[in-house]
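User: Can you help me understand a structure? I only have the sequence.
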Amino acid sequence: MAHCTSCGSQLIEGAHFCGDCGKAQGAAADNRGAFAKGQTAAMTEAFEKKNPIHKKWWFWVIAVLLLGGIASAVNDRRDSETDIPDTTVKELIMPAASDELEGKNYQDVLTKLKNAGFSDIETEPLEDLVFAVLHDEGEVEEVSVDGETVFDAGARYPDDAPPKIIVRYHSYPKQFDQETLF
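Assistant: Let's start by predicting it. Here is the structure, written out as C-alpha cells:
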C-alpha cells in the first residue's frame, strides 16, 4: 500500500490524491492538475470510505440542532393553539324529557336540573290537593323551559343565557284546614 507524500496517510490503490489532505500523488502530482478520467470520482470515493459522514462530530451536532428546532416549533405551535381563547358556547343539556319529569317528586326534579347546571329554576305550588287521592303532595304536574312544556332529553341551551325553568307541583293549600271539610 502506498502512503501520502504530504501527510503519510494510507492511500487507496490507484488513488492520485490523498483522501485526508487532498494532496496530489504520483502522476497527478507530476502533471500539476491534469486529472485522469474518473479521478474526481475516485478521490471522492476514497474520501468517503475513509471518513463516512456519520462519524463526523459536526454531523451529529447539526442533526441534534435540527431535531431540537423541529420539536420546539411543534411544541410552540401546540402552545399557541391552547392560547387561543375558547369562543365556543358552552351548553346546558336537559337531563330528561318533559314527560319523564312529570309525576316525580319536585325536589328530585330540582336536584336533577341543578346537577345538569341549570340555575334559573322556580317552583310553583298548585295548592290543588284536598285528600291527595289522585296525586301525591310534591308530585310534579309540569315543567316549563322558557314557557315550553314539551322538551326532549338532551335538548341544549346556551350556558351564557340559561333558560327560565318553572316546576309546577301538587300541594295542599297554604290555609288548608281538614276539619272545615267535615
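Now, to help you interpret it: The radius of gyration is 44 Å. Residues 85 and 131 are 57 Å apart (CA to CA). Let me know which part you'd like to focus on.
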